[in-house]
Automatic annotation (TrEMBL):
The chain crosses the membrane at residues 15-34. This is Carboxypeptidase regulatory-like domain-containing protein. It comes from Haloarcula limicola. Residues 126-148 are annotated as: Disordered. Residues 134-148 have a biased composition (Basic and acidic residues).
Length: 148
């Protein structure tokens, strides 16, 4: 029986065809993955930022115009801007929606603590629905400085 196993060469007859099939399936899978990866570029998400005007203010009532921009500096219309307390205190959260020029005006009244010389107001952005924009990084803040 031992001689019959060693002399039997039929076991390798199917091996080359199995290798060819595995190679064809592997190449097909690789081409599908590569086309999927190249198609992801069209589904790219763009981060937005804010540009407050003025960038520095004093405690008390003030109107701040916030421009929502994409990485190239183009304005983003239809975004909702939310202003909230950072290290400076706001009595209420301010919200406004950007117009066609990407601008939103917020009426804010920041205050500082008794021994605090400066603080910040933080802005969050809710991008327009069904857009490729998102706001996951921190945005530019409004600096509040006490006059000496």
């Amino acid at each position: 029986m031992r001689d019959s196993l060693w002399s039997d060469e039929r076991a390798i007859e199917g091996l080359p065809i199995r290798l060819v099939i595995a190679l064809v399936v592997g190449v097909a899978c690789l081409s599908v993955m590569m086309s999927t990866i190249s198609g992801i570029e069209t589904l790219q998400v763009t981060e937005v930022d804010v540009q407050p005007h003025p960038e520095v203010t004093t405690p008390g009532s003030t109107d701040v115009t916030v421009t929502v921009v994409d990485p190239e500096g183009a304005p983003v219309a239809g975004a909702t801007v939310v202003a909230k307390s950072g290290t400076a205190t706001l009595s209420t959260v301010g919200t406004a929606e950007t117009g066609a020029g990407g601008n939103a005006t917020l009426s804010l009244s920041p205050s500082l603590g008794a021994n605090q010389q400066q603080g910040t107001v933080v802005f969050d952005v809710k991008p327009p629905a069904s857009s490729s924009y998102r706001d996951s990084r921190s945005n530019t803040e409004l600096l509040v400085v006490r006059e000496s």
